[in-house]
Amino acid sequence: MESPKKNSGSSLPRLLLVEDDADILELLSGLLKKNGYEVVVCNDGNKAVRAFKEGQYDLVILDCMLQGKNGYAICQEIRLIEGQKRTPVIFLSALAQKLEIAKGLEVGGDVYITKPYDNAHLLAEIKRLLSR
Fold first, then answer.
1. In whole angstroms, what is the distance from residue 25 CA to residue 35 CA?
2. Are 72 and 107 in contact (CB under 8 A)?
3. pTM attached to this predicted model
4. What is the pLDDT of residues 29-40, one digit of tens each?
């Protein structure tokens, strides 16, 4: 996990990327950095909550199935942190059943994108949420 330090004064939007698949984490992190985002990565649910509490993020991208806490629990916890209730959350998950998607939105996710995902769609959703 990269350091969850406070925003380093960079004008780049700061994203927390939570994904336990190392290949997807590497590819997605590279895509986001290439498109002008500062990215902090976590591969474990408990580490992700800690990183969120210690850092300042403009947006969170969450997988649902993780070690430690799952993505739904992480999102619920994020929504309870004072001052962070409206940080946009994108679920990015292989769980594509309607009940799973509904659950992600019910716990506070702003968008639920299923894997395999389209890079252009994901980038467009990030841009849209950051412009709110």
1. 15
2. yes
3. 0.91
4. 999 999 999 999
